[in-house]
Amino acid sequence: MERPQNSESAPFSKSSSDSTPGQRLRLQFDFLTLFPEVFSPILNSSLLGKAQEKGLVSFHLTQIRDFATDRHRTVDDTPYGGGEGMLLKADVLHAAWSSACARVNGPAVRRKTLLLSPQGRPFDQELAKELVGYDQLILVCGHYEGVDERFIELCVDQEVSIGDYVLTGGELPAMVMADGITRLLPGVVGNDRSVSQDSLEGDLLKYAQYTRPREFQGLSVPSVLMEGNHGAIAEWRQSQMEERTSRKRPDLWRRYQQREKPGNT
What we know:
The chain is of the alpha/beta class.
């Protein structure tokens, strides 16, 4: 099947598309979606936009509807056996997916296809770290009642969820994942230490932070932060991380305690 001419949008930043021929970007995202217009404001802003300008990441959009073969460009149909809603068709999705795969070639390419689904593995910091090592991530944004199971069996490596709730489609979860993964790429965040000290690193939440003014509406900055004793500051921050985690996220606290027990690895 010949690929439609408008199936792929250009990368959002000119620097990505103007890279030297044969030069591989560190990570390429391909989004399979029925609503490509919702992505640009997010992917072209803040750290995501700067990561593209640096050539560290590339974002491509595939309009699933471009791969429908009938004159009405039908992408969904009623489920066999009856039931509510409509399902995205396996043949249309497969054609769109094959087009995305063709963008990054080579025997050593590390590629992973992810379907955004409430049935998937919860997206967390550990999964973001796993995914940052790939050359290409294909994120399939479902809609309607779901997708034909045969597409999942043939093409999807992993289903991923951003929470136990149902959204209209997979576009917002896909952008959440792209943000969480991209910021882990070396060079995206100016200060690498700020990434290593994020909340959830080591199963602990981040300590409380303060800036000027020193006094605000009767509340003062803790004196330990004003005294210049870096050892004392480090101890205070560690105790803050542990206290906040035990109080706000007992699930993480239990995991942290289990990991820190003598003899555990």
